[in-house]
Each structure stands twice: as structure tokens, then as C-alpha cells.
Amino acid sequence: MHHTSLIVMLVGGICLAFVFGMLANRLRLSPLIGYLVAGIVVGPFTPGLVADSGIAQQLSEIGVILLMFGVGLHFSIGDLWSVRKIAIPGAIFQILIATVLGMLLSWMLGWEWGSGLIFGICLSVASTVVLLRALEERRLLETQRGRIAIGWLIVEDLVTVLVLVMLPPLAGLLGGTIEAGGSDSIGDVLKALFWTLGKVSMFIVLMLVVGARVIPWMLERTAAVGSRELFTLAVLAIALGVAFISTAIFDVSFALGAFLAGVMLNGSRLSHEAANDSMPMRDAFAVLFFVAVGMLFDPHVLIEQPLAIAAAFLIIIIGKSIGAWMIVRLFGYPNETALTIAVALAQIGEFSFILAGVGVSIGVLSEEARNLILASAMLSMVANPMLFAALDRWIAGREPQIRASAEAQMKETVDDSLPDRALIPESNHIILVGYGRVGSRVARSLHEHDMPMVLIDTDRDHCIDARKLGIPCIFGNAVSADVVNDANIKQARAMLIAISQALEAGPIIRQARELNPGLAILARAHSDEEVAYLHQAGADATIMGESEIARSMCDSVESLVRLSHRLEVTNRPPDPAAA
Ligand code: AMP
Questions:
Q1: 285 CA distance to ligand 1 centroid (A)?
Q2: How many angstroms separate the Cα of 147 from the Cα of each of 144, 151, 263, 486, 540?
């Protein structure tokens, strides 16, 4: 079969990505590897179906826009600020090391220095997707180690955005072909650079002055309309629209435009909702981005350049790690902190692919270099969970020592995933999952009645709010056995599940039942199907919002009718006949 249309690309890309993603998951690999493999399968370098790479690239651009929008939405100067002393020098030092090592390798391979420079930078920036997932799985997000790793990543994000902006005007100098008129005269390059920086600054100023007001305002107004659909549309219109304007008018990359659009929404009250609403689209297009990247991969490189791939892989997992480990140790942090950060960042992914794409498009990076980056990225994603598993084993073996050193470090530690241990009841208590619209009301009521309880919520701010009221809250996901064990589930009396996603409540219930068969479990549902599902999972009782509303309405109607009847009686005009 030959070149295919948009629909075939979309359907084929998504279906194959799903199949290979599931397969990767089965093999305990990152699903990203599955998506890349799906791309290789439909790519031009393997026999069989060949998807249209032009269409794939355009779809993947949408993926890049939504990915960068998401990065902007979650971008937090506050997160960076709290760990700036270590994260900023650490990330810069690590980027320098990886870039120099990458350049050294490219020099050995006989490439131009410009190509080597981009190659090196590509090896230096870690993948947010891979890192967040790894930290989340290990409940490290809110620990000191996790925060440093995230701050570090924010610096890398910023460097990536900067490099993306600077690459086109520097193309001539780096030995590229387009932009700057393909010129490599310093004068022309400087002119192009100033011109680009001027446009970028204008764009940023416009975003800060106009965007920062208009974008949140627009979203607030849309939210006030009360239509979920229009709200989602507004979020997408903002992300795609700003990215498009940034390119069409200011000649700034899609990535920067989308990133800034996200940043503009970042502080807004609705940023959470915006992130949730754009997530399914983002995920779908991000998958297509990985498929498109996979399509560009020529597997022959595995046979032709095994040593170069091995060297690039070693730079990612050893060169970068040693750099990170050294600097974290130098700052006086314990060994496990240094090792966690080193392992967390010992991988590359989407940012490297985006950078490599720009490098190729401006004629600086060769296809060969991009193939090396793709191959080593995939290897690093395969290796990363294994490295983490080895680290977990190492840490488990040293648990007592680590605990001692953690206690010594207590003052500096910002691990606030657990409330004061003494506040968590030991037995006969209620575990309440979720401190949202329903859970917070339940929690306040139980607390007022002095019922022994502990909360679990995945939202840090919600946990902090609860703790302010004196309610102990564990920050974490109730699906995790560690989290519910922290809540002393084995001795608990009841579990109330007040989260809105029944599908997520299912596994929570099954696990809770397993850990404590006598536990009374009450869950929240939205439909009859959910009620059946939750009972099947092991819930003793369920409360369905709609039927409760209906019941309350009936109760209210009765009293309302009684009231109006009374009013009617008292207000009735005197009966002339009776007079
Ligand atoms: P709402 O949708 O407003 O009722 O809020 C649900 C609350 O449950 C939010 O605060 C979420 O952060 C929280 N939540 C959702 N899923 C989980 C989970 N698996 N474990 C703990 N908390 C959760």
C-alpha cells in the first residue's frame, strides 16, 4: 500500500499507537516506546503500510503545540524558586556536560561543529513525560528530591524554549541552509539574531500586557456561560490560536507561542480546569507526535552505527547522571537525593525530538544525527525504569541509614505528603478519599462531630486547606497501597470514597477490601451503571448524586406544598357567604 490520506493516518496512527502502547505497558516499558514503534511500523523505512509523512508532521505540530501549552500551564516559578539554588546551577552544569560530551562524540563521527552542538543539546534535555510519570509512580513528586528534579526540569524547559527561538537565526553560523539568508557572515547572523530577539520580545511584551488580561478574562467569561463544550473549545482556541499568531505574525516558533499561552493561564483560577479539559486532546495529539517521530526513524542505523548509538546512550545515562550526581552531592545533599535526581534525568524524549526536528529543518542537523538521537532516546526510556528499580532496591537495602540521614535533614525537607503522624488515628477511624465538592462537606461535618478520621487527596492544595482546619490529610493517590497503609487502613472502620471518577474508585475499593475485609465501604456514583460497577468492586453502599437530589427535591416539595397550603389558608379572602 502507498501514501494514505489524513483519515488513514489518524486512524492508523491512533490504533497502532494503542496496540503498541498496550504492548509496551505489558512489557513494563514506557508507552512512549510503543508509540514510537507504531511510527516506525507505518514509516517509510519498514515494509507494508506507509503513512503520509507530510500529514504526520502537521499532526505532530499540533501535538507539540498542546504539549508546550501543557508545559506552560504547569510551569511554576514558585516550584523553581524553592529549589533555585540547586536546580539552576545543576541543570546548567548538566546541560553543559552533556552538550560537550555530545559534541565530542560528533567530532569523532566527523560531523560539523554546529551539528554537534545541537546533537549535544538534544542529549542534554530530559523528557517531562517520562520524568513526571516516574516520580508520580514512586510518590516522589512532593518530596525534596522530586521538587529538585522538577525545578531542574523547568530550567531545562526554559533552555529548550530559548534554543528553539535562537536556532533559526543562528542557522547560517551553525552551517545551516535557510533563514539568515543562509549567510554565515557574522554581520548577517547578528542582524538576524537581533531581529528574532526583537520579534520575540515584542511578542512576549504583547502577551504580558494584552494576553495576561485578555486570555484569563476570555476563559472566565466562557466558564460563566456554563457550557463545558464551549469551555474546552476556548482552551483549545487559546492554545492553538496564540501558537498560530505567534508564528504567522511574529515568526516565533509554535512551541514558544503555545508555552506562553499556557503561562498566561497558569495563575488563573481556571488553570486547573483548562489543564483537565485540554488533556484528552493533548494526549491524543502527543501520541501522534511520537508516532510521527517514529516514522522518521530509519532502523538501519541500528546495524550501521551500533557503536555511535551505544556512545550516545552512555552519554545520556552515565555522562548526564554523573554530572547531576556530582553537583547535587557538591551542594551537600545526601546520596539518595543525588542518585534519585541523576536517575530521574537520565533519559531524553519529546524535547530532544522537537529540537532535533528544528535542527534538521534548518539544515544543521543531519538525518543520521536525528536517527542516533531517536535510537538512544528509545534505549534511555527502556533503561530508565530499570535504573529506578535498581535505585529502589538500593534505597530499600539502606532504609535504616537513610531514615537516620533523613531525620538529620528534617529541617530542610519539604516532604509534606504526610500530615503529622500523630494526627492519623490508629484504629476505628474513617478514611475519606477526596476533599473536593462532596468530600470537603463530609469532612467538615465529621470533623465537627469529632469523628476520628483521615483524608486522602491527590491535590496538594486541597490537602493544605484541610490541614488548616485541623483535619489530617495524606497527600497521595488512594489507589496506592502505600498511601492507604499510611492511613492505617487495616485498623480502620470505614472508607468513604468521595471522588467523582467511579472508574478510579473501583481499584481503590478492591484494594481496600483486600487489605481490610471487614471495612465498611461507601462510594459515590453518578449513574446506575456506576452503582453496579462499584458494588461489583466490593462497595457496601453507594450514593448516587442524582437519586439523592431527586429525594431531596421530593422532600422539599412536600414541605413546600404544606407551606403554600398554609399560606393559601391564611391569605384566603373572607367567604362572603359565611358572613
Ligand atoms: P470533586 O470532583 O470536586 O468532588 O473532587 C474530587 C476530589 O478527589 C479532588 O479533590 C481530587 O483531588 C480527589 N481525588 C480524585 N481522585 C483521587 C484519588 N484516586 N485518590 C485521592 N484523591 C482523589
A1: 26
A2: 5, 6, 19, 21, 39
Structural domain includes residue 577: no
Cα 260 from chain centre = 17
pLDDT tens across 398-430, in order? 756 655 554 454 433 335 667 777 788 999 999
* Cα of 68 from ligand 1 centre, angstroms: 26
Residue bearing the CA closest to ligand 1, atom 13:
434
Nearest CA to ligand 1 atom 15: 499
Quote the DSSP letter at residue 316.
I
C-alpha 474 to ligand 1 mean position (Å): 12
The tally of domains found in the chain comes to: 2
Pocket of ligand 1 (CB under 6 A): 433-439, 456-459, 462, 477-479, 499-500, 504
74 shares a domain with 199: yes
For ligand 1, atom 2, the nearest C-alpha belongs to: 500
From 371, 400, 429, the end of a domain falls on 400
Cα of 480 vs centre of ligand 1, distance in Å, is 14
List the single range of 277-291, 334-348, 515-529 with lowest mean pLDDT.
277-291
Residue 392 structural domain: 5-400
Residue 446's pLDDT is: 94
Of 43-57, 281-295, 369-383, least confident by mean pLDDT is 43-57
DSSP 226: T
Within a domain: 79: yes
CATH number at residue 298: 1.20.1530.20
pLDDT tens by residue, 230-239: 988 998 999 8
C-alpha separations of 354 from 111, 127, 315 in Å: 20, 11, 19
Contact 308, 372 (CB under 8 A): yes
Residues 209-243: tens digit of each pLDDT: 888 888 888 888 888 888 888 988 998 999 899 98
Q: Which atom of ligand 1 is nearest to the CA of 457?
A: 22
Are 384 and 329 part of one and the same domain?
Answer: yes
Question: Are residue 13 and residue 124 in the same domain, yes or no?
Answer: yes
Residue 334 lies in a domain: yes
Distance, in Å, from the CA atom of 215 to the CA atom of 238, rounded to the nearest integer, reads 7
Q: What is the dihedral of CA 191, 196, 197, 203, to 10 degrees?
A: 150
Q: Which of 137, 417, 457 to mutate to test the pocket of ligand 1 (most atoms within 8 A of CB)?
A: 457
pLDDT top residue among 402 and 31: 31
Distance from residue 340's CA to the centre of ligand 1 (Å): 28
* Best of 499, 500, 511 for a ligand 1 pocket test (most atoms within 8 Å of beta carbon): 499
Residue 346 DSSP symbol:
S
* Of 400, 433, 453, the domain-final residue: 400
How many whole angstroms from 477 Cα to the centroid of ligand 1? 9
